[in-house]
Design goal:
There is one protein chain. By secondary structure, the protein is mainly α. It has one domain (about 1-130): Orthogonal Bundle (Arc Repressor Mutant, subunit A), CATH 1.10.10.10. Helices cover about 70% and strands about 10% of the residues. A two-stranded antiparallel sheet has the order 1-2. The longest helix has 22 residues, at about 90-110.
């Protein structure tokens, strides 16, 4: 069961990441933007650690996000020598738009299921959420 769940979740993530959508945000940039939007401002090192990449890789991702107006670099109020990276309102808006598109696409697939299958899946999601707490 665990193997099947792992395979299904990996397949679902691949489908969601396959197309960056009309906004053109690549999956690595989208992931970093989500960390910033939901986790708040953080240093480059913190963001790189959260995304499990090296600092030079994250630096390139952040540079692209800043260039596109999706993130900002700001001096850390506690230590002016440090820089904090934050999602902009535009970044948050684009992130929300991408999420809405992915949810809509998944909803369209789920509508193809029979009512009994939809109820079974809803119950499975409740159980899975409990397992993952």
């Amino acid at each position: 069961m665990a193997s099947g769940l792992h395979a299904a979740s990996a397949r679902m993530l691949r489908i969601a990441r396959r197309d960056p959508g009309p906004d053109g945000i690549s999956p690595p940039r989208l992931s970093a933007l989500a960390v910033l939007a939901f986790g708040g401002p953080m240093s480059l090192a913190e963001l790189a650690a959260a995304e499990e990449v090296k600092a030079p890789t994250m630096s390139r991702i952040v540079e692209a996000l800043v260039k596109d107006g999706l993130a900002t670099r700001e001096a850390d109020p506690a230590n002016r020598r440090k820089v904090r990276i934050a999602a902009t309102e535009e970044g948050k808006r684009r992130l929300d738009g991408g999420r809405e598109r992915r949810v809509r696409a998944l909803r369209d697939r789920l509508r193809r299921l029979a009512d009994s299958e939809q109820r079974a899946l809803a119950r499975g999601i409740e159980v899975l959420e409990r397992v993952l707490r």
